[in-house]
Amino acid sequence: MCSGNTARCLEILLALILPPLGVFFRKGCCSLEFWICLLLTLLGYIPGILYAIWIIVQVKEDDTREIYEPLA
Questions:
Q1: 40 Cβ partners below 8 Å, 6+ apart?
Q2: Nearest-angstrom CA–CA distance, 43 and 47
Q3: pTM > 0.85
Q4: Would you give the end-to-end CA distance of the chain in angstroms?
Q5: Are 70 and 2 in contact (CB under 8 A)?
Q6: Whether the Cβ atoms of residue 36 and residue 47 lie closer than 8 Å to each other
Q7: Are residues 20 and 37 in contact, defined by beta-carbon separation less than 8 angstroms?
Q8: Helix/strand/coil percentages in the chain, nearest 5
């Protein structure tokens, strides 16, 4: 599957296109970070991008969800 650096690069690219999507893949949809990013994106696109990239880059590796592992 994807290595850690490849996954992070994809999340940053998604955050540039749609900021809450990058945070969703890193933290999940029920996290406070996701809702803050969604609110910032609705209030202004640039603050949403900056917050999403900050969350993706600053998150610790042990806090991430392993969404890239196969289900089977």
A1: 19, 47, 48, 51
A2: 8
A3: no
A4: 13
A5: no
A6: no
A7: yes
A8: 70, 0, 30
